[in-house]
């Protein structure tokens, strides 16, 4: 039996809040432990977006869903190369807020408010 998509949507919102708490502890571009924690959480967030229904994702065309889910592969498989702390910081600061806003709207429009 598979989980409902709302469980994954709530997980995405929770992970984003965790990333905010991690950032509140210090600069992820200078603290490797905080950086690693953000990477791990971005990985699980990216995985969870793959479980959201395509029909719902299509309602939010400004979110680059393929890139978001593909980011997991970059994080997992390119850990020795192309990704750096400034790129991760940019993703977190510029792209994560809109993604989270969209996921919250999905939950609200479904009648499954997260709070």
Spell out the key features of this protein.
single chain; 115 residues; mainly alpha; 5 helices
Itemize the secondary structure elements and their pairings:
Layout lengths: L4 H20 L7 H18 L4 H5 L6 H13 L7 H25 L6
Entry summary:
The chain has helices spanning 5-24, 32-49, 54-58, 65-77, 85-109.
Task: Describe, in plain words, how this protein is organized in 3D.
The chain is mainly alpha-helical. The chain has one domain (5-108). The chain is built from 5 helices and no strands. Helix 1 crosses helix 5 (85-109). The protein is globular. The model has no long low-confidence stretch (mean pLDDT 88).
Number of strands: 0
Order of helices and strands: HHHHH
Mean pLDDT over all positions: 88
Strand content: under 5%
Rg, Å, rounded: 14 Å
Which residue ranges are poorly predicted, with pLDDT under 50 across at least 5 consecutive positions? none
The main sheet comes to: none
Distance from N terminus to C terminus (CA atoms, Å) equals 25 Å
Question: What is the count of DSSP helices, taking H or I runs of 4+ residues?
Answer: 5
- Globally, the shape reads globular
User: How many domains make up the 3D coordinates?
Assistant: 1
State the helical fraction: over 70%
Class by alpha and beta content: mainly alpha
